[in-house]
Amino acid sequence: MIELIYEGKDINLEADVAVTGCVYTDCVHGRADSVRIAFSDAQKLWRLWAPQKGDAFEVRQGAIRSGKMYVSKLAARENTFVLAGSATPLSALGAASESWENIRLSELVSRMAAQVGMTAELSGVPDRLYARFDRVRKTVPAAIQFLCRRESAALKAFDGRFLLLNERKLEQAAPVACLKPADMTAPEFGTSDAGLMREVTVQYVGADGQITGRWADGRIAGGTLAVETPVSSQGEAERFAKGFLRAANRRETAGAVTVLYDDGIATGNVV
């Protein structure tokens, strides 16, 4: 049974406001987790309760919990009420510009997360020291996602936190499940050349002149990408270029399957 905790109150989802549909999207790589939940509401109770955009809520079912969500959309229809939410608050939509010098990655993302009422954690990601970082007209999630791409990290927003996860460790983890053809419905796998990059160049012109780093993938016959961002050494520029190239080519091979409800599989798991 689905449970709903709304602004700290346990909502009784029986009879008058029974759930008629719920979709929870569990994401990694920068997209925030989201929930869309529909209720029967012949008595118009949700209208009386007057929910507001930005309200906090959580959806639970068995071992699955959405973590803290923030209302992003409300819709009232005949005998139905629809509530949608995201793991990032409305304040995360605001873009800004600011700069830091001599700052660790952990402190940098924590400071930005605090601006929208969230925290940040590194999981298996080296806590690099940056000589400089410029956030230029970016939202907090976009700025943290930029940092993740250049450090080959995956970003997940969940339960009031930005989690920076080591991509390679995720991919090298032991499988949590093995799916056989009989377990799957409508399996689809394939490759695509869309957006692939053959080479990425990272460059920066500082007080000591220009620093340039490149990273290439000889298998790819795609385009090239040039990124300008502050770096303190050629080695750092090459590390960033490798991260940007990895991010650009991540979706070269992709697949999708439908399986029965299984709370033992979560985003980031190897199957």
Q: How would you describe this structure to a colleague?
A:
By secondary structure, the protein is an alpha+beta fold. Helix content is 18%, strand content 44%. The strands form five sheets. Strands 1, 2, 3, 4, 5, 6, 7 and 8 form an eight-stranded antiparallel beta sheet that branches. Strands 10-13-12 form a three-stranded mixed beta sheet. The longest helix is centred in the C-terminal third of the chain and has 16 residues, at 234-249. The chain is globular. It starts with a strand and ends in a 13-residue tail after the last strand.
Question: What integer value in Å does the Rg equal?
Answer: 22 Å
Mean pLDDT: 93
Largest sheet: 8 strands, antiparallel
* SS strand fraction: 35-45%
Helix/strand class:
alpha+beta
Shape: globular
- According to DSSP, the number of beta strands is 18
Secondary-structure element series: EEEEHEEEEEHEEHEEHEEEEHE
Helix content: 10-25%
Poorly predicted regions are none
Number of helices, where a helix is a run of at least 4 consecutive DSSP H or I residues: 5
Spatial gap, N to C terminus: 26 Å
